[in-house]
Amino acid sequence: MKEQLLAKAFQAMENAYAPYSNYHVGACVECKGGNYYIGANIENASFGLTNCAERSAIFAAYSNGYRKEDIVGLAIVSDGDRIAAPCGACRQVLNELLKKDTPIYLSNGKEEVVTTIKDLLPMSFDMEDVL
User: Fold this and answer.
1) For residue range 60-99, what is the model confidence (pLDDT) as tens digits?
2) What is the pLDDT of residue 84?
3) Cα 88 to Cα 54, 55, 70, distances in angstroms
4) How many angstroms separate the Cα of 107 from the Cα of each of 62, 65, 84, 93?
5) Is 54 a catalytic residue?
6) Which CA distances in Å does 96 have to 8, 18, 56, 130?
7) Can you tell me the distance from the alpha carbon of 54 to that of 26, in angstroms, rounded to the nearest whole number?
8) pLDDT tens figures, 23-45
């Protein structure tokens, strides 16, 4: 599972549009039933309108009817010297759209880390805080 998820994320990274940062990121969400949804970072001259790879991938899975209970794993990869970890905005999105123990695989092709959103965003703000 992990190898295929990472491979699909690296393939997705090839679709990144990063003319400003030249930092390419790919992501892949694996859902129950063996369905995969990919995303790549897409930059914009109005930087606030840039979308990260992991949000693109998770939004694609949700757009196809999947929910957190259906997600088996998430891979996020980059071509940087360091392993890419989700930005703050992505951590908040993943906190709501993933189960707290869903494995998240991070890699730059040289190193690899396995983590969860619970570890990436401790003491998170979530749905229970607003209900």
Assistant:
1) 999 999 999 999 999 999 999 999 899 999 999 999 999 9
2) 87
3) 12, 12, 24
4) 24, 27, 7, 20
5) yes
6) 23, 27, 15, 12
7) 7
8) 999 999 999 999 999 999 999 99
- Where is 89: in which H helix or E strand? helix 88-97
Give the C-alpha separation, 95 to 127, whole Å. 10
* E-state strands within 82-130: 104-107, 112-115
Report which of 62, 60, 57 is spatially closest to residue 41, judged by C-alpha positions. Answer: 57
130 token code pair: 């607003």
Find tokens 């997705």 and name the residue: 12
Q: Evaluate whether 8 touches 1 at the Cβ level (below 8 Å).
A: no
Catalytic one of 30, 43, 54, 69: 54
CA distance 38 to 74: 10
Contact 120, 88 (CB under 8 A): no
Tell me the pTM: 0.95
